[in-house]
Amino acid sequence: MISDETKILPEKKSAAHMRKEYIRMIADKIQSLVLDEKFSPNDIMVLVQRRNPFATPLVNELKSRNIEVAGSDRIVLPDFPAVRDLLNLIRFCIDPTDDYCLCCVLKSPFYRLNERDILELCTARQNAQKNIKSDENNDRIVNVFDVLQDIRPDIFAEISQIVEWSKTLAPYSFFTNVLNTNSRREKMIAALGTQIIDPLEEFMTICLAYERTQPGTLRHFLKWFIVGASEIKRDMDTGAGVRIVTVHGSKGLEAPIVFLIDTVRTPRDKPEKIFEIDKDKSNDMTAWLWAPQKIASDRLAVAADATMDVKIAEYYRLLYVAMTRARDRLYVYGFSTTKSPPEIAWHTQLSKILPDMPGVELNNEIIKVSNV
Q1: What is the pLDDT of residues 67-83, one digit of tens each?
Q2: Are 234 and 59 in contact (CB under 8 A)?
Q3: What is the mean pLDDT of the chain?
Q4: HEC profile for 337-348?
Q5: By the 8 A CB rule, do 71 and 242 touch?
Q6: What is the pTM of this model?
Q7: DSSP-derived pairing of the beta strands 255-260 and 326-332
Q8: Are 333 and 6 in contact (CB under 8 A)?
Q9: Which distant-in-sequence residues (6+ apart) come within 8 Å of 366 by Cβ?
Q10: pLDDT (tens digit, 9 = 90+) per residue, 80-132?
Q11: Can you say whether residue 319 is alpha, beta or left, with left for phi > 0 and alpha for psi between -120 and 50 degrees?
């Protein structure tokens, strides 16, 4: 096993800019393994503690280099702009007075209106509303869709047709019509990139499953989707390409090469507000302490320490899980927005332990450990 432990990057520029450089560095290493050492993308698995903020940027970076990617073990579909645009389209069809959702649709790749165009529509709506209010016998409310008919009749005609489809079609049929008319699917891919093809297909698969098994209108579908069907879990044991998986979801998986790239985040980054303080073993009842704000309480301090001890123990257990996913090589990387990462962080602890192992090589602050 080889551990390639990179130096934690200090933040000299914005966090977003440095994170992009970090992702590119990891992608460079993966690319060298594929091109220079002739490993297959299927041989590589990347582990993160949580999908944000590394998983999606790394998928996009690898795809931009034409490296096959199986993707993430979970896809939260509303996280993708393409899916959000389709959901906003449903919301507007359900309620044509929803100006906000209509404006979101108008700014989407379907119509590509800019801020100036939206301002023009909203100003026209306000003026039309003022004219109506001057008539005491007319209390009609003017919406953006009303003024769209005069300012952009071409778009008004298209959206009117979509609204008519929404009245009679089930989700899959509705979105098939929407995406396959006027090259809307192609417009979306051209604007957002090929990385949206995968979530778009997953979304359409969900629509088809709903249409085949569930009754109800688009309104029912929207509620059903948001409540419980918007997150997709994949079988990463059968995916083709580089797999990007959470450590928790990697149990039972193995790969010749594993990258561990989310090693600085700790349980203390997300403090708890509810603590278990007492448990009656006779009836299996638990008492809880809720502390929405920091307060000077000895009992709270004891409960918080006990909770953190449990979380840290689980945190290190997951490190063991992560490191044992690698069959041949393990590459450990670290990224921090501070010069002094937490003492309990995986990266910090491994940096202390690995140099004392047999067969260690130190080169430009990179630690390499081999078992051969």
Answers
A1: 988 866 566 788 788 99
A2: no
A3: 82
A4: CCCCCCCCCHHH
A5: no
A6: 0.59
A7: parallel
A8: yes
A9: 4, 5, 6, 7
A10: 889 999 999 999 999 999 999 999 999 999 999 999 999 999 999 988 888 77
A11: alpha
How far apart CA 276 and CA 328 sit, in angstroms, is 41
Q: Which two tokens stand for residue 226?
A: 């948001």
Q: In the block, which residue shows the tokens 């840290």?
A: 312
Q: Is the peptide bond before 358 cis (omega within 30 degrees of 0)?
A: no
Q: What does the DSSP 8-state code read for residue 45? A: E
pLDDT in tens, 142-170: 899 999 999 999 999 999 999 999 999 99
Q: Which of 128, 129, 92, 97 is nearest to 107 (CA)?
A: 92
Q: Which amino acid is at 22?
A: Y
DSSP state of 144: H
Give dist(CA 58, CA 47) in Å, integer: 11
Structure tokens at 26: 């990891």
Q: Tokens 């297959």, residue?
A: 40
Alpha-carbon span 52 to 122, nearest angstrom: 35
The Cα-based distances of 310 to 193, 305, 317, 328 in angstroms read: 43, 9, 11, 31
**Cα dihedral 99, 104, 107, 111 sign:** negative
The SS3 assignment for 233 reads strand
Task: Report DSSP state, residue 226.
Answer: I
How far is the C-alpha of 145 from the C-alpha of 33, rounded, in Å? 54
- Give the pair of three-digit tokens for residue 211: 């249409």
Phi first, then psi, for residue 335 (nearest 5°) are: -135, 130
Tell me which residue of 258, 221, 211 sits closest to 94, measured CA to CA.
221
The DSSP 8-state label assigned to residue 196 in this structure reads: G
Helix ranges, the chain (H):
15-35, 55-64, 81-94, 99-107, 115-133, 144-151, 153-168, 171-180, 184-192, 197-213, 218-224, 298-323, 346-353
Please provide the size of the chain in residues: 372
